[in-house]
Amino acid sequence: MNKKNIASNIYTILVFVFLYLPILVLILYSFNASDSTSVLKGFSFKWYKELFTDSATLNALKNTLVLAILSSVISTIIGTAAAYGISKMQNKYLKNVTMSVTQIPMINPEIVTGISMMLLFVFVGSIVGSASRLGFGTVLIAHITFNLPYVILLVLPKFKEMDKNLPKAAQDLGCTPLQSFFKVELPAIMPGIVAGFIMAFTLSLDDFVISYFTTGSGFETLPIRIYSMTKKRVTPDMYALSTLIFVSILVLLLISNLTSDKNRKEMSKKAKTIAKVSVGSVFGIIAIITVIVLAMSAGTKTVKLNVYNWGEYISDGGEGSYNTNLEFEKYYEDWWYETKGERIDVQVNYTTYASNEDLYAKIKSGAGGYDVIIPSDYMLEKLYKEGEIQPLGKVDKITEAIPNIQYLNEQFKQMFVYPNEDGELELHGAMYTYGVIGIVYNADKLAPEDLDKIEKGEMGWEILYEQEYMEKYKGQILQFNNARDAFGTAMYYLGYNVNTATKEQWQEAYELLQKQKPPIVQSYVMDEIYNKMESGEAALAAYYAGDCLAMMENNESLGFFYPKNSQGVYETNIFADAMCIPKASQNKELALAYINFMLSEEAAVANAEYIYYSSPYTHVKDNLDYQIYMGYCDYDYELDENGEYVLDENGEPIIKLDENGEPIIVYFEDGGDYSTIYYSEFENKLGSMFDTYAYKDLDTAEGANITTQDLNGYWEGLKVDSGSFDGTIYIVCGVILAGIVAFAIYSIVINRKRRKLYWSNSPSESTQKTVEKDDSMSETVMIAAVKAENKKKD
Amino acid sequence: MNEKKILEPEGVASCEAKKIVELIDVAKSFDGEIVLDHINLVVKEKEFMTLLGPSGCGKSTTLNIIAGFVTPDTGDVLFDNVKINDVPANKRHVNTVFQKYALFPHLNVYENIAFALRLKKMSEEEIYERVEEMLAMVNLRGFEKRDVNLLSGGQQQRVAIARALINRPKVLLLDEPLAALDLKLRKDMQNELKNMQRKTGITFIYVTHDQEEALSMSDTVVVMANGKIQQIGTPTDIYNEPENAFVADFIGESNIIDGVMLDDYKAKFSGHEFECLDKGFSKNEPVDVVIRPEDVDVVPVDKGMLVGEVTSVTFKGVHYEIIVDIDNFKWMIQSTDYVAPNQKIGIYIEPDAIHVMKKSEFSNMFGDYSSFSDELEHLSDTNEEENGEDE
């Protein structure tokens, strides 16, 4: 091998590594027994199993597939027809115009397409007067629209390549024009159609932006679902799903390559059969899915409830857990049948969002049609002030509407209660969860004196913000990658309240965060915090208590504490999420029933265990199962002399019983990780703290001295000169752009010069004719023959 | 040798033969541009007829009208003496071999040929028999399963012919079928096509712009220009007795000179009176005189009927091509003997070498080789000397 060869081989390998390494890592993690990205525990199909029990994800997958199939089939048909029309156009100018017009949507940024589509649908909906529900129909139209240009782009060249005489030849041999199209022209352009279809299919499959804007309540595609998981974290069954999708696309690609013209010629009979069978089976599967979907849509009277929640924010049946939505459907169907004697079909359309701002935008666009939404405190207040949500009921009669709200912890009873015009108090949100920000740390990485201080409960926010500590733990601190929480912690360190602080105080917090910027802060993170803390990459971070618990499960060195200020008082950001009914809800009764169901002991416990955030309900906190799950207490088990469990005949550990035959419960004296968080004295004071410590809507709250925009401005200021580009990158981009422009101008000028020359020198028409005549070759031979002929005559 | 054989007047698509296709006063224009200007044409059974002309002369349109792809604006198309103006292409008893074959790319050789029969819902056995017969005829046995896209040009050509002939049409239309082949292959295919036509007895209507092809294959040549038929005749007639300056120029090389017919058998041109074999013109009628380059004898100056100066000499293999300036008119002379450029020579023309034509719209447009040497400048470098004559 010569040097050149080695170099090109290395290059090829590098390209492959670059292209496929991420996917290989994804596949690797999909088989990881642990749910942590930092721990490889062993091979397991766990996530695949879980994937197939996760009804919401499966539903999203089904939606995505149905959408992809329908939109790609329809756009392939329309696109082929359009390409046919364009190819038959006589007027060249018109043809060019049509082609550019169809191709503009391809260059158009998706975000523009998405927003304009949404506006169009809402606008048309308001004209038609229908309840303008964005959903499957609108997403389908949007997908067809953005797929079309790609199909045309891929099919049109096939029409151009096609021998113009092909349809004539078919008719000549006896085809009617219609037969000629189906028997000859269509098969001749088939490779283009197949390519167009596959392109449209994959584009539709992974489109996020356009789907996001054009969907409404009740229709969620896979990309939207995965994106909205960011409030908690992307669950590993998504790795499994992504792996499956990648593998199927790979198979699809292989098939399409195998069946392509070029290979067909060299393919053996066997390979041909295999290809045919696999193509057949792919279409078979597609057909089966379609049939199932159609079958599913037929049936009894359907009542739909549109729930819009955070991603990963409900117990969804994964890992054998409680499937809240499914259970509600069953419960309500049964209840309806018992009380009204009629069978109905309840469908919870459960879709998810990633941030309060996303939710707000969706509600404000009028695209919603949601029945239950779960905003955070400040967003709830904002929506209330803007009249976007309706009261759940009057406070004194609220237990009639939502009986289970009686279990709401006394300390939270004042929350989300606003007076109506008559001065009567009305409840606007039924609390779902609440959370507190604390500090998670890696005990192995902290100095002993600091650990000691933490254990004594004397440590506060200074560990993140004081100069001494910042130097000590330089490069080991993680900071929130979101303005509210990052500024919140800084403000509490400084002793200011986020809702009443003056502009100067905000400025001070801003300067503090500036000081803390990298290299002191290792990076600004949200989801990545799991990986970084679990793997021991960082020592300290402020994060939500419930999520910290999840991290602690994967790394025993991690600890957690709530910071206190110098007066020994807890000061930190808190938030609460509550269930609300938007003004636009079409079915308040069902929505109330859903909310009540969510607060029932079984569902509430399941959700609290799933989400890990605190539950404000006493029947959850007092639930033994929950307490054991959260590590607050446990049964007293029989132990042998080695400290091992004594097992009964079924292999279950034996629980000690008291004199009444009741199991004995042991409460942990030191409290354990869980009780430090959920059963601390601090927790019991939280209710009264919300007014002060939870962010209010900065734009409307009394006493707030800055607006959300100002806050975002500070944040941008912080981020711009830290993590983002420095000047050189702009210069590089500028130079590249200028180079391209210069080259374009240069080539235009040169071309024009050249053309000028040959246009003036081009032969006139008459000489062209002569040239053509001379094309008829070798007359001489012929003429010789004629002469010979003449001679003979002579 | 082959050409010679073909030229034998056995193109006896004899006078008694039945008319198979007839165009009566057919006109067609596209976007206001006249493509066919009221033409009349009769094609007889078993005839090999060639429509010959430069591109844009209307020959392809004529073919398309017969095939049924183009409807004439006026005039009638008769097939077996029945008017078929309104019969769609798929119902006519004609089949076509297209310029670039137009084979169906998604079908293999067998299926391409079987296409027409399948449309007729024939039994598989019958189809098999007929396709095999066709394959045998075009020497493609064993190619059944081949992908047509992987065949050579000649093989594709044969498939296209087989596909068109499997319907056993009465008339086969061929639209420049050999244009895409290289020279050698084209020669072979010319023979093969001619043989095939003779064997099957099917009427061939063949369109080409290649005059050599037309002369060597046809029983009848129809020369077309500007949407009109300029001349219909056997290849020999067309070559020896061109109707007007266009035909004379388009078929072979010609010196076309302005002249006056002084009397029967007496023509005057280039300031000299010549004896000729033509008669029937009125006295002193201006005419076009055609003299083929090979019919001009180069003689010493003193023996020449006309005297000129050689401006260029090009070696062509069989002969030299000599451009001679006689009274500012550039003649082309083909001679096996070399003459040097700038040499003064005399030329001698036999009476039977002179062909006199009536003046036409094409007069003074062709026949002067003054631009010729410019065009082929790079070829005119030979400087050898030889003397002698072809005839």
Task: Characterise the protein shown here.
Chain A is α/β, with parallel strands linked by helices. Among the domains of chain A are: 58-237, MetI-like (MetI-like fold), CATH 1.10.3720.10; 302-432 and 577-609, Periplasmic binding protein-like II (D-Maltodextrin-Binding Protein, domain 2); 733-758. Helices cover 57% and strands 9% of the residues of chain A. Chain A contains 34 helices and 16 strands. In chain A, strands 8, 9, 10, 11, 12 and 13 form a six-stranded mixed sheet that branches. A three-stranded parallel sheet of chain A has the order 2-1-3. In chain A, strand 6 (417-419) and strand 7 form a beta hairpin. In chain A, helix 3 (55-87) packs antiparallel against helix 8 and helix 4 (92-107) crosses helix 6. Chain B is α+β, with helices and mostly antiparallel strands. Chain B has two domains: 2-240, Rossmann fold (3-Layer(aba) Sandwich), CATH 3.40.50; 245-379, Nucleic acid-binding proteins (OB fold (Dihydrolipoamide Acetyltransferase, E2P)). Helices cover 24% and strands 32% of the residues of chain B. Chain B is built from ten helices and 20 strands. Chain B has helices at residues 2-7, 59-67, 109-119, 124-137, 153-165, 183-200, 211-217, 235-240, 245-250, 372-375; strands at residues 19-30, 33-44, 48-52, 74-79, 82-83, 94-97, 171-175, 203-208, 220-225, 228-233, 255-263, 266-269, 272-275, 285-291, 296-299, 306-315, 320-326, 329-335, 344-349, 355-358. A six-stranded mixed sheet of chain B has the order 6-7-8-3-9-10, with helices on both faces. Chain B has a five-stranded antiparallel sheet with strand order 13-12-11-14-20. In chain B, a hairpin with a 4-residue loop joins strand 16 and strand 17 (320-326). In chain B, helix 3 (109-119) packs across helix 4 and helix 4 crosses helix 5. The two termini of chain B are 18 Å apart. At the A-B interface, helix 7, helix 8, helix 12, helix 33 and helix 34 of A face helix 1, strand 6, helix 3, helix 7 and helix 8 of B.
